[in-house]
Amino acid sequence: MASSRHEPTLLGLCDGAFDDKKYQSSFLTNKIGGLPDWLPSLPRMSPRCRRCSSLLAHVVQVYCPLEGSPYHRTIHLFACPAEECRGRSDSWTALRSQCLEAEVKAARISRKPEPAQEALLSSTDWCDSANDWGIDEEDGGAFKMDKQVLEEEPDVHTVDEDVVNRLDCLHLVEQQTDIPVLCPFFISVVDELDVAAEEDDLAHAHELLRDYERREGVAVGTLDGGEERYEKSRAHHGDAAFSRFMKRISPCPQQVLRYCRGGQPLFISEPPANMGQLVMLCGSCGGPRMLELQLMPALVSLLRWKDGGGVTELEFGTVLVYTCTESCRMSESQQLVDEFCFVQMDPDQQLFK
Predict the structure, then answer these.
(1) Full DSSP string of 201-258
(2) What DSSP assignment string belongs to 262-292?
(3) Full domain range(s) for residue 308
(4) Residue 243 within a domain
(5) DSSP letter at 153?
(6) No. of H helices and E strands in the chain?
(7) d(Cα 182, Cα 312) in Å, to the nearest integer?
(8) pTM for the full model?
(9) What percent of the chain shows pLDDT beyond 70?
(10) Domains in the chain: how many in total?
């Protein structure tokens, strides 16, 4: 029996602070925080919370073109910093944008060149041995985050009233200075299978070390230099979903993001029985959505306000992002699609209230 093709789950890791005074990021840069880098064909804008109308903070930017597609493709995640909106799915916004390379070039020609240097990151094809989710702009989109092939340009669909209302929360921000900004960080990437293989090798080495200690009657110590491994105190509340979650991330608990378009969600607690109905159809084309990525608990500790503003109130266990299966476009003039977010809080957060 033929086995199914492996679709890798890619883990995003914090890879150091991004100095935005030295470099200028672009829509090709993958990062935590900072200001969003929109496609050149889009104006600068910032979404507002659908619940309280507060300006949202930009949390994560992921450049994720589909294999075989002619489109540049970026996903931006935003969250409301207001305390009353904490942990609510409707206080998060995921905006997907995509355009052709010709549209990018046309937009750049119409603008004055910017003197700041683009962020130059060492990058290779990130399904093989990439070190960053960033890319030199001249590489033209080398990262392939998905194996789905889109052979034809998506059809242009009529924008329904619901989509218009949801995108009304976007506001031009050319002169706006009160936007909440998080400290920016680069994101590096590893394949989850590679991490698991390294963990198995280390466990085997530890077992050999223990055998040697028992045989020789000596205490050699640890193989990892005695460094304390990341581990958060957890309640023993018998939550099966939580246990599965912790077991799955244990080889790499510092992961801030998981990417596997069309993969299975990793819930931190039992999902609602009607989860399938909660994930709304695409508001642009009416088609189904699939899981594309999810934010992880290790990201929370990195979310600090820029310029010494302190720790944020953005708390979550995981944020699951579902996007249009066909990755449709709304129209040539409206390139943003509002996707679906589902937030689960950390089951242990209630212990610290």
Answers:
(1) HHHHHHHHHHHHHHHHT-----TTTTPPPP---------HHHHHHHHHHTT-TT--EE
(2) T-----SSPPPTTHHHHSPPPTTT---EEEE
(3) 10-191+234-352
(4) yes
(5) P
(6) 5, 14
(7) 9
(8) 0.75
(9) 65
(10) 1
